[in-house]
C-alpha cells in the first residue's frame, strides 16, 4: 500500500501503479488477489492502531500512465476492490 489518506471522515488505502504507454497490463489489473490480501492485512493493522473499525474506509488504486515527453495521465479508481 502506497498511500493512506483521509477524505473528511473516509479513510483511504491506496495502491499506486505506474505503467509505460502501450503496456499490456493496466495498473488496476496488476493488483491481483495476493496483492489485495497484502493491502487488506496492512489496512487491518492500521485500523487496529487507530483503535477503531468504526471509521468508514475503502481501497483505491491510482494508475499512472507515462509516455516519454508527455505529461503523465492519472486514473483514480475508487473502491477498486
What is the CATH-assigned architecture?
Answer: 3-Layer(aba) Sandwich
Total count of strands: 4
CATH fold name: Trna Endonuclease, Chain: A, domain 1
State the distance separating the first and last CA atoms.
13 Å
SS content category: alpha+beta
Number of helical segments? 1
Order of helices and strands: EEHEE
Low-confidence stretches: none
CATH domain class: Alpha Beta
The main β sheet shows up as:
4 strands, mixed
User: Structurally, how many domains make up the residues?
Assistant: 1
User: Radius of gyration over alpha carbons?
Assistant: 14 Å
Taken as a percent bin, the fraction of beta residues is 35-45%
Estimate the global geometry from the Cα principal axes.
elongated
Helix content: 10-25%
Order of strands across the main sheet: 1-2-3-4
Overall mean pLDDT score? 96
Q: How is the secondary structure organized here?
A:
Layout: E1 3-7, E2 10-20, H1 33-50, E3 57-66, E4 73-77
Parallel strand pairs: 2-3
Antiparallel strand pairs: 1-2, 3-4
Describe the structure.
The chain has 81 residues and is α+β, with helices and mostly antiparallel strands. The chain has one domain (3-77): Trna Endonuclease, Chain: A, domain 1 (3-Layer(aba) Sandwich). It is 22% helix and 38% strand. It contains one helix and four strands, in the order E-E-H-E-E. The chain has one helix at residues 33-50; strands at 3-7, 10-20, 57-66, 73-77. It has a four-stranded mixed beta sheet, covered by helices on one side.
